[in-house]
Write a sequence for this structure.
């Protein structure tokens, strides 16, 4: 139901207007009176699993967005992006640690020359 509510809000429609707009998508004829028009909306609110896919498609069209965007929680995309960035940083740090450890082990085994620390570009302080 959150997806339909988001679509209704983004479309700037009242509950009655959105209910009337979705009725043809679920092959229901229009009804007289606001109370009867809202009935479908509140029935879906009580039982969100009863919302037909065609209603979601019509709601997404009314809101000018995709069904995927309607179904995704608003903060989920930014949370996911933040998690990906955190994992990327952890991976880079782990790779650097592994490279340092590999170089240390090679030196101890006599397989790598004693390398000098990397030189800094001119103008950089230590």
């Amino acid at each position: 139901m959150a997806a339909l509510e988001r679509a209704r809000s983004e479309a700037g429609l009242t509950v009655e207007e959105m209910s009337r707009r979705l009725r043809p998508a679920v092959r229901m004829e229009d009804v007289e009176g606001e109370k009867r028009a809202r009935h479908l909306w509140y029935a879906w609110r009580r039982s969100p699993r009863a919302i037909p896919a065609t209603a979601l498609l019509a709601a997404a069209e009314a809101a000018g967005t995709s069904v995927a965007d309607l179904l995704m929680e608003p903060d989920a995309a930014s949370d996911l992006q933040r998690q990906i960035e955190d994992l990327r940083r952890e991976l880079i740090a782990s790779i650097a640690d592994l490279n340092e450890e590999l170089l240390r082990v090679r030196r101890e085994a006599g397989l790598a020359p004693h390398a000098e620390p990397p030189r800094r570009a001119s103008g950089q302080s230590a």
The CA atoms of residues 83 and 89 lie 10 Å apart. The first helix runs from residue 2 to 11.
